[in-house]
Amino acid sequence: MRPLRPDEAGPIGQYRPLALLGEGGMGRVFLAVAPDGRLAAVKQIHPGFAHDAGFRARFAHEVDASRRVSGAYTAAVMDADPEADAPWLASVYVAGPSLREAVDAAGPLPLPALHRLAVGLAAALAEVHRAQLIHRDLKPGNVLLTRDGPRVIDFGIARAAEGSELTGTGAIIGSPAFMSPEQAASAQLTPASDMFSLGAVLVMAATGRGPFTGTTAAQTLYNVVHASPELSGVPAEVRQIAEPCLAKDPAQRPTPAQLLDFLGPVPPGLSPWPPAVETLIARQEAEVRAALSWPVPIPPAEPRRARRGLAVAAALGAVAVVAAGTIIALTRGGDEPSAGAQPEPPRLAPIAETLSADRLRMVDPCEVLGDERVRGLGLLEPNRDGFGVHSCHYENEDGDRLEVALGDRADDGATESGDEIAGLPVLVSTLSGCTLSVSLPDDPQLALSVDDHAGPSGEPCENAEALLTAYVERLRAGAGTRNLPDHSAIRVDPCSLVDDRTMNDAVGAVQDKTVERLHTCVWSTTGGTVRLSVDYVFPGAYPDEGYGPVDLDGVRGYSRLVSETSCAVTWMQRPMTDRRGEAVRLQYMGDVPGHPCEKAIPVAKAAIATLPPA
């Protein structure tokens, strides 16, 4: 992944590139953002292919078929334009190394991971074949390992290049070490060709080498067509899967459904990959977060255009941040304006970036408005003595009181009001006064909301709308950013503090993990529920009554036996002032009476070990 050059920064359809993920013989792949804020992998085809009418027709056909492919083990196609000057295809972006990268870095996969890989590949091919596609290029580089399993990418794209001017009529498209004998011989292909590739990929994952790899590409192709597969070192459990797939006769190979029947179900809640691969996944996620903070270069100047055109181009730059805490600086630089010149208003950041969960964790909700007056409400004074890390109460001279909450759980009973703020639908609930909210683009289950419980002046929904509108605009201008130290737990996604393996060992197999609020995560496991939250506390009254001291691997913490099945653990992560500190609270709630603190304390220690030391 590398930063964009100016000539790469222009929009691709409605997608705005953020970084270059890679280049190949068919084109370039960009990390980009979709109009709805999702991250996408956009493959822009080499311009040379665009001059081939046959390629365009095949590409359009394969794109139409690819749109029908769904399932947990594929990266779904989001959009495409076969008629563009440089045809392109956008798929959902998933973070994770390719199988090739994982094996090169961490070695062959262990048996449980190989089983999970085989199930994922078979399920993905079942979906591809259901859409009447043949992948044609299933290889380790087209299998991504993500936190919840493998993903097969680039299905059907190789078909579009066959017979084009750039590849030559009759050219073989694919990877020699992983293609089927019939593909190597340029014969008619059936879905069974992909099953041969699946077998070869499994052998590589189990041993680090392909079953037919020779010293040259020509030797490899000969081996694929004529030689028996080299299966020494392949575990027996993998060999009994791979060997039938590698039959020279396509009719002798199993179908994806038959392979899935043989493999059986995958155990729930287990981390699919060894720790070294999990580290690679985390590293790639960190690279994406870093890329989202890179300044986007200005594309080369185009012929003069109206300022409205510039505004449209800026609107196309909506950036979805998965786990980044920085906002791209979009303020004017250079010399002071000359006498009589009107200073430009601050440019507003894309709404998807502004309201990303990671950006909002860096926001002090009581510092967003500053001294700005709000239409219809005047100057609103925040209550800075409140203890909500993600919320703030405001009051004006007329006694109107409103509360802003960043990243609360979205109200299931809210309905769309018909209005929009920065392109996002406004949701309304009037059960008590008026609550208006907009969902966070990267997690629609969370929302930015304003509550007006019918203050003394004005209509509650009018007041809430005025404050919500002003608040979003100020956030887009970069207001309210906290200066948090590295060891602050407020800036961290709470669900990242404890990995699934630790939770499995301490409590039980993880079945679900939910961000309940920006600073609260809930794990549902086979052994009970764990809730971890970060909030402000008043040091003079901390901890609450009933807590006793406990050593958390050198950190002074406190625990409390709530009941025979529940235990709470807390520690002060960061003293701030004599009136405010930052504390982490964790509660385990089980179903079986016993020693609940024996389950809660190891989870608390794991969270402390993940955070930078205070």
TrEMBL record:
Residues annotated as transmembrane: none
Q: Which UniProt keywords apply?
A: ATP-binding, Kinase, Nucleotide-binding, Transferase
Tell me yes or no: is Acetylation among this UniProt entry's keywords: no
Q: Which Gene3D superfamilies match?
A: Phosphorylase Kinase, domain 1, Transferase(Phosphotransferase) domain 1
GO MF, one term, reads:
kinase activity
Residues the record lists as binding ATP: K43
Q: Boundaries of each Protein kinase domain copy?
A: 15-274
Q: Which Pfam families match?
A: DUF3558, Pkinase
InterPro entries of this UniProt entry?
DUF3558, Kinase-like_dom_sf, Prot_kinase_dom, Protein_kinase_ATP_BS, Ser/Thr_kinase_AS
Q: What is this protein called?
A: Protein kinase
What is this organism's lineage? Bacteria, Bacillati, Actinomycetota, Actinomycetes, Pseudonocardiales
